[in-house]
Amino acid sequence: MDLWLKEIAPSTELRQAFCHQAEHWLSFQQGYYQELSHNPHVQELREMAKQQPLTLIYAAKDPALNHALVLKNYLLGKEIQG
Question: Inter-axis angle of helices 67-75 and 25-37, to 10 degrees?
Fold first, then answer.
């Protein structure tokens, strides 16, 4: 691992509210997009992505419901996935 940007992770409050439960997925995405839109470290990650492929890692058990997926979609400019 070359870089770990802890500052770009979702807030503790947001993670605890999500609890990796599908019924909270939409609100988690909305909250995380909001946090990312105010996070200065996002630009650093975007600049890195222009230079080389990024590998986003996560510890969640569900590959379809995790913050790395939301971050990827945000960086790619995709809409929130309902």
Answer: 50
